Amino acid sequence: MEKSKMLLALAVMLVAVQIVAAQVATREQAAHAIEEAELTINSMRDAGFGTVFVTDTLNQAKDTFGQGEIADYDQVIQLTARIEEISGRAFSVGDSLKALNISIAELEGLSLNATRPEEIYSQAADAFYNERYDEAEALIEDGFRAASEAQAEYSRLSTILGSTQQNLVAFVGRNLREILAASAAAAAIIVVGGLKLSSYRRKRKLTRLELEKAVLLNLIKKAQSDRFEKGLITKREYEIKTEKFKEMLVDSERAISVLKGGKSGAGKKAAQQENIQKPGKPAEDRE
């Protein structure tokens, strides 16, 4: 009988020890999650993003963590996970906002009317920096749509202009014998001038695309440095950034290849050449 009681007491003690150990592990996990959340918020501040909501969420997690024996560490981890989720979305929407700005610059480079896309961009930027990410995403989509419509209008006018030039050449051909030498010379001047203008526009667009490519390559390298050398951004933030930059790089390289008369596959090759060459484990492995 005494032996049975002793065995029962030992069993109870073992269960109690396991419970205490589990609580310690959970508390350590919660403390680590709070530290990670603080680093994430700092990276958002460094990027110039709004941090009101995530800061309030972090404070809520800290309050829960500080409740001692009744602290719900699972809730702490859930709150900090929410911060990581918001941060990833913020960087994604921020990259989309930058992409829209590049599209607007392209319209302006072609001397097209970019008034509507610019208005939408301003609204999207305001929503983004005030942490209204749903609204910002919807506005960014509207901005890209407006930019596409402006580009389509440009293409339509270019087609009409090209057709008009062809008709003019056909008219000259049919009435060549009746046209005075002076008129023929004037037509030649128009054709040469048109070719020069086309060449100028092509070179101007190529220069802009080359600059855009260089900017994107630098952004990729900066993301690599921030992740693997400085440990300033999380793995998720790093993957979101590099994936977006590489997509934009492929588009830029494809456009450059078309202007130069090359193959459209060059953009994919360039993006592959920018595959991450990890110099080693990040300064602090932040998942």
In words, what does this structure look like?
The protein starts with a helix and ends in a 14-residue tail after the last helix. It has helices at 2-46, 52-65, 73-109, 115-129, 133-174, 181-229, 235-260, 266-273. Helix 1 (2-46) runs antiparallel to helix 2 (52-65), helix 2 runs antiparallel to helix 3 (73-109) and helix 3 packs antiparallel against helix 4. The chain has 287 residues and is an all-alpha fold. It has a domain at 180-287. 82% of the residues lie in helices and 0% in strands.
* Biggest sheet descriptor: none
Relative strand content: under 5%
Report the helical percentage. over 70%
- Please work out how many helical segments DSSP would assign: 8
Order of helices and strands: HHHHHHHH
Structural class: mainly alpha
Parts with pLDDT < 50 across at least 5 consecutive residues: 14-25, 185-194, 263-271, 276-280
**How many β-strands, per DSSP?**
0
Shape, please? elongated
The residue-averaged pLDDT reads 75
Distance between the termini: 54 Å
Query: What is the rounded Rg?
Result: 30 Å
